[in-house]
Every structure is written in C-alpha cells, then in structure tokens.
Amino acid sequence: MKKLNVGMIGGGFMGKAHALAYAGMPMFFWPAPAVPHRHTVVDVNDQLAKDAADRLGFEHYSSNWREVVANPDIDIIDIVTPNDSHAEIAIAAAKAGKHIISEKPLARNAAEAKTMLDAVNVAGVKHMVAFNYRRTPAVALAKKYIEEGRIGKILNFRGTYLQDWSADPNSPLSWRFQKKIAGSGALGDIGTHVIDFARYLVGEISDVNAVAKTWIPERPVQSGGADKLGTVKGGEDVPKAAVDVDDEFTTLVKFANGAIGSIEATRNAWGRNNFLTFEIHGEKGSLYFNYERRDELQVCFADDPGDAKGFRTVYTGPAHPYGEGLWPIPALGIGYGETKIIETYDFLKSIVEDTNVSPDFLDGYQIAVISDAILESAEKGVWVNLNKSVANVR
Ligand code: NAI
Ligand code: SOE
Asked: CATH no. for residue 226?
C-alpha cells in the first residue's frame, strides 16, 4: 500500500480535525487510495509543535515550516494556519513540488488567492481547498438528486450560516476579527461555506447585492495564540481594540443559469450554533438541509401523492454517497470528523489516480472573487456583476 508523508502546518482546531482524518481515513475507506503518514507537524514554537506532535500522533515536529516544505520526504503540505499565511506557505509548497490541501478561505482576498492558483498551475501539483461541509453525505445526496433531475430546473437557493460564539462583546479579539489576518469576518470565515454550497449545488454566481454590518466595534485584546472561539472571555479590565471586519452580511444572488436566491452569515445569532442550511426549490421539487441535523436531507417532490405532499426525511446511510465506507446503518450519526475523513479520502485518491479534485484552488479563487464582490456591493450599495471574473470559467 502506497504511503504519503504529510507535513501539517498548524496545530490548532483544524490541526486536530485533519490529524483525526489522517488516522481515521483508512479505517473507513479500505483499501485506502494510500495511507497518510503523519510525518511532521509545525507550530509557531518548539513547545507548541512538540505538544501537537504528541497529541496528534506526528512522528516529528518543527517550528519552521520552510524546512518542512523543503524536506524531500514530504509528499503533502496541509495548511491549517490562520488565513494570512495560507498564500506564502502554499506558494513555497507548490514550488517544492508538494501536493497541497489548504483550509478555507483560500486567502484573504481574490488577488492573494490568484497567486496561489497560479503557483499550483505552474507546478502541476494536486490542490484542494477544505470546504468539507459539501462532503456531508446528505449534501452529496442533494447534489446527486439535482444531477439526476429529481427536482428539475432550479429556481431558488436560500443559504444561511448562523452561529452565536461571538455575540458576547467579551469574546476576545482573536485573529478572526482582524482584517490583516482574516481578510474579512463572518463572510470569509463562514459565509464562504455557503457560497461553496451555492456553487456546488446550483452553479456559478453572476451577481450579488449585499449589506454588511459590524455589530461589536471593539473587543478585549487577545494577544496571539489559537482562537478559543468565544469559550474564553476577556475580562472588563482587559484593554479593547477595534474590530475591522464584518460580523454579519446578507446578499441577494443571481446565478449564471437564471436561478436566484440569498446567502447570509453571522456569528452573532444567539441560539444558533452551527446553523448551516440550504433550501433549494426546483420546478419538480425541493430540498432542505441543516448541518445541525446532518444525517438528514428533507425532500419534497412535486409528483408525491396529493394527500402525502410535504417534506419528508431521508436519513443517509449505506445507500447514499460515501455509504460504502461509513457506518452500516442509516442515522448512526455522521460527525464533523467524518466530513474531514471523506475530504482526505478524495484528496488522496486524486493524488494516486492523477485526477482533479473539487473544490480546488480555482474554486477557492472564485469564492474569493465573489466574497470581494459582496464587500464591494455592501460598501457601495449597488449590484455587482461578476460575469467577467467568475461566470463560465470552467
Ligand atoms: P487556530 O487558531 O485554532 O489554530 C491555528 C494554529 O496555527 C495555532 O496553533 C497557531 O499557533 C498556528 N500557527 C499560526 N501561524 C503559524 C505559522 N506561521 N506556522 C505554524 N503554525 C502557525 O485556528 P483554526 O481554527 O485551526 O483555523 C485554521 C484555519 O482553518 C483557518 O484558515 C480557518 O478559517 C480554517 N478553519 C476551517 C474550518 C472548516 O470547517 N473547514 C473550521 C475552523 C477553521
Ligand atoms: C468559526 O466560525 C468556525 O470555526 C469557522 O472558522 C469554520 O469554518 C466553521 O466550519 C465552524 O466555525
């Protein structure tokens, strides 16, 4: 069985998720396309890197990602650092001939994402951006139904991503609230997952008309370190500094194929945790998904008997996408970890079989173009047309 050595840069929240996926993928998908070996993990100092190696099962650790990128033993560079370092690491990794998986958003803005896309195209390496929610089996099932024409021509897409971890003004000013590190706020952090759903399920977005708000203009300073996502509060006595990104946005969207819809995201919606949803209306039926009930796809077909019309629940299991590798009975429970395991499976398959994998850096770049347009539209109060930049590229 082929072995692929992974150099993972970053040992925080996503470091944990990706390490779990490397360990778990061959347990689910066997024979695996290749066995990922947790070779080296990198963090900002030796102590953090050593802790990450001990905890996440890596053979080696380092506090210098450049050395790891240059190591000829490494096959894959996995970028799980905050958004400001994705481009520099990815470009160096591409030049070193490594296959790359980068966390989302691909970069802080479209210009930066383009440099990454150009680098992987020149190098001819495999590349993937980690919009893992589309690998929830119920989301992949929605895609299958759409491709089979089961809901007909799509008329409308409504997507939301609502969380509440930053609704408390004492949730600290982590890197996610700083434009120079994150690029944008709720938009890049969670709105991009919905944009990925919209493009995956419906098609390319051609126009946006948005509003955006920063509800909490300053927060207690958090100096460095992993983002604790609001679980550790800054006290009243901690100095505050300005938030320079959006807390929330809503946009109307038009798709190149004529469908219309809306996308919204906020991290300030009390009571909502990981409320990542879509509802899609087609000429022959409707689909509804909510990640908080991720084993379920709600479906309604126009030709259902009149006396039984209404949404019903399909619980994903062995009969559905990725079912051959997952649990043998529907509704045993798909978790966040499984979405990352499937992502790893598809990425390694693309490397071994020399095929393209989606979403790739082109998708990441196009999502960045759409994100930039949402901010431009919100600032100017006008529709922004994307035909020249993203529509019909593929
Ligand atoms: P985090 O703050 O929990 O961890 C980041 C880690 O990277 C920390 O350990 C930090 O010390 C380390 N780090 C920072 N700069 C570094 C450098 N130059 N070299 C080596 N290590 C460095 O952040 P989290 O939540 O893991 O986010 C990382 C990325 O993953 C972000 O781009 C974020 O948007 C994305 N993300 C994606 C999720 C998804 O569902 N796909 C979920 C959460 C985050
Ligand atoms: C915080 O909003 C966060 O961790 C995002 O960064 C992820 O992308 C999302 O999947 C979960 O929430």
From this structure: 3.30.360.10
Does residue 90 share a domain with residue 203? no
Residues 103 and 161 in one domain: no
The closest-lying atom of ligand 2 relative to the alpha carbon of residue 186 is: 2
Give a yes or no: residue 345 inside a domain: no
Kindly state if the Cβ of 23 falls inside 6 Å of ligand 1. Answer: no
The answer, yes or no, to whether any atom of ligand 1 lies below 6 A from the CB of 250, is: no
Domain shared by 175 and 290, yes or no: yes
Q: What is residue 159's predicted lDDT score, i.e. its pLDDT?
A: 98
Are 151 and 101 members of one domain?
A: no
Q: Is 231 exposed, middle or buried (0-12, 13-18, 19+ CB in 10 A)?
A: exposed
Give residue-wise pLDDT tens across range 377-392.
Answer: 999 999 999 987 764 4
Residue 65 sits in which domain range?
A: 3-133
CA dihedral 259, 265, 271, 277 (to 10 degrees): 30
Give mean pLDDT, residues 28-38. Answer: 98
* Closest CA to ligand 1's atom 15: 81
79-94 pLDDT, tens digit per residue, is 999 999 999 999 999 9
Average pLDDT over all residues of the chain:
96
- Predicted confidence at residue 392, as pLDDT, reads 46
Instruction: Find out whether the beta carbon of 267 lies less than 6 Å from any atom of ligand 2.
Output: yes
95 and 202 part of one domain: no
User: Do 180 and 73 lie in a common domain?
Assistant: no
Q: How far, in Å, from the CA of 173 to the mean position of ligand 2? A: 15
Distance CA 268, CA 215 (A): 8
Pocket test for ligand 1, best of 45, 51, 81, 101 (most atoms within 8 A of CB): 81
Residue 365 in domain: no
- DSSP for 316-347, please give it: PSTTSTTTTTS-SSTTS---HHHHHHHHHHHH
Q: Which atom of ligand 1 is nearest to the CA of 174?
A: 2
Is residue 380 domain-resident? no
Tokens 């689910």 correspond to what residue?
28
Percentages (nearest 5) of helix, strand, coil residues in the chain: 35, 25, 40
CA distance 251 to 159: 10
